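ESCALATION

Customer reports they have been waiting on this structure for their group meeting. Please prioritize. Original submission:
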Amino acid sequence: MNAVDSTPRAGHLTFEEFKTAVNSGDITTVLLAVPNMLGQLKGKRLDASGFLKTIEDGSEGGAEVCAYVLATDVDMEPLDGFELTGWEAGFGDFGVVPDLATIRRLPYMPGTVLVHADALHHSGLPIDVAPRTMLRTQIDRLTKLGLDVKVGLESEFMLYQGTAQQAHAAGYRALEPVAPHNLDYALDHPVALTDFLDDLEEALRDTSTPVEAVKTEGAAGQVEVTFPYGEALAACDAYTVYQHAVRHLAERHAMVPTFMAAPQTGVGSGLHLHLSLWREGRNAFAVPHEGDLPDTMRQAIAGLIAGLPHLAPLYAPHINSYKRFVARSFAPTHFTWGRDNRGCAIRITGHGDGAHLEIRLAGADANPYLALAAALASIHHGLTERPDFPPETTGDAYQTDDGLPVPADLTEALADFRSSKTALDAFGPAVVRHYAYAARHEIRWHRHRVTDTELERGFLRA
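Update from on-call: job pushed to the front of the queue and completed.
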């Protein structure tokens, strides 16, 4: 007789599998998580048996969290000025309702599952500024046009030696990358880095978040992780699991990661969106060999070029985000498109039925739900309003006069966003005001603070 495999099942769990694992004591903890405005997972650790009981009792297994989770800054400061909540409203709670299709084990946290959840008003209506809600709204708008969205995310981050606590104690200065120099496409990595990548790849496989490819990038200590194509909301959920795993495993390896867009002068990390639209099971972006671009792709590109200049706070939300947009950096400086041209904002890549768009504007600091929502809103604009199809950029995209320049900073981006018809039509005035206020707060926070660079240039020279 064959032995029964008692190894706990990895990855996604059905509700019945989750129930069995809880009742057997195999799962003891549930991380119930809502992605916040920055794309970070926020929520509570719940006793798995209690969570299961609330679902079986008909209360959906939900919890409540303070509404400021969706109305705050990177420091988690309770801020006045948001319509969702504030001191005048007493910073009340909103409901957190689990999406039971997202139950997944976290192998690096034994006995624990992560469950993504949606933020709801007490009336039961979705909170319109919640990132998952915003993305789902844009997916639904394209579904009404008979189109399905498929997405693959490509993420870059920097990895330094030492723990997060040590980096903080050093003021995040003079950190040593885990690799000594440019290891782009290298297959001979330092042993410590190889061990980390092995653990990361294994953890992601075991959370049903397998990678397509992992490589080291052009900056010392920079890593790129590419994920397979899939359903849009699930791709963004998986991305938050990936970031959670990176941070958790890096700490175990005495390393510290950062997803800043420009973690140091001359270094940029991106979050590229690989995207296609499908109609009746066929890729609407499929390009015949040496043939013309299909009309759906042409209008999607036109929409992206017309819409994205006005939605930058959704994919470049920080002051630092704009320091990545530098010539010859592989980050775009103009809203351009080209075929297999990495200097463009929109790159056509893939071949035949695999053709798709790579949107290269978002930095590693972007919230994937919001960056993708901005792209889909722009594509919807292109398909319904049919703006003029812009000329293709060939050659050196950094020397072109084609296309609007990428906003110079968050202040310039905010001015376009607040009055954007594309933003207002796609997301509604309340959502635009919410994210515009977040951008204004970010600008005000930085405005009166003296930086190290200012001291270096001005201390003895002023």
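Sent to customer with the following note: Confidence is low (pLDDT under 50) at residues 1-9.
Escalation resolved.
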